[in-house]
């Protein structure tokens, strides 16, 4: 509902801005037209015996400009726009509280580690000058260890953008054993891309020779993939209309680039997603809930920072879930070793403490809160994620 109100207010501002711009152009065009007419009268051919009365022309121009009243018109349309802009700014401030410090929890950070995280973030993104600046200002030269590894990664990525796979293949050959242990098929993907490039831009014989040299070793493990690649030979020059047209898609290059980044970071013991970026994105997702909580608690004159557990769940997307968790639908508490999830005979799951409260006794049966079935504590079994 709040977002709809903000959108309506924004639409009104846009409408007023367009109207103000249109009016301003009309006024400027009117003024320009009157001035052009006056200049044309002054410069028009005339009888030498009766010279042009420039004063009267300029006087008439002044009279016409006063009738148009450009300043009043421009000020009027701008005033209407400013009123709507002012209302919109107040609505944004009311709807989206800009004071995010209310959601801040005072936590002691190791500034040395934080500086390293920031520097590594810049290196991982390819912003090496910024990373060097952070290191120099913070005095953490050991943080530059990853710089040269990430520099190699970005050299590979830049080469792939121009369809040059040589740096990527050299890195794959040098780390073949580790990639195999990771179960990665990156080498096949890169050779497949190179094969398709040769097939589309080179000769059929060159493509066939490349396949015999670099794709044949994968024939037993990836039979279906190799067969599709070989099928492309029969449609050389008309792949766009062949059953294998999908193999020409640029998305294969994009996915292979992402796989290079993922495997490169994995071998470095780093996440392919910057920890700093993930933390900021997660904070952005949870910020509205925390701000609402802070406002509610402030109205009740309570300090939410003193709570051991938040009274409301902070919902984050699946991209921020890195391990399996279970939150009891009754108590709204996350399971733990002391309070594990328990499966009831009806196949509903609650935490152990909730089951004990419902049963009131280990021997009494109790009704499931989500269906008519009854169960006893003895019938419930702990489950593991």
Q: What is the overall silhouette?
A: extended
Largest sheet: 3 strands, antiparallel
The residue ranges in which pLDDT falls below 50 over 5 or more consecutive positions are none
Distance between the termini: 38 Å
What is the number of beta strands?
5
Helix content: 55-70%
What's the gist of this structure?
The protein has 385 residues and is mainly α. The chain contains 14 helices and five strands.
What layout of secondary structure does this protein have?
Layout: H1 2-43, H2 54-68, H3 70-95, H4 111-125, H5 128-138, H6 147-161, H7 166-174, H8 176-181, H9 186-201, H10 204-215, H11 223-231, H12 251-267, H13 275-299, E1 341-343, E2 349-351, H14 352-359, E3 365-367, E4 374-376, E5 381-382
Antiparallel strand pairs: 1-2, 1-5, 3-4
Helix pairs in contact: 1-2, 1-3, 4-5, 4-6, 6-12, 7-9, 9-10, 9-12
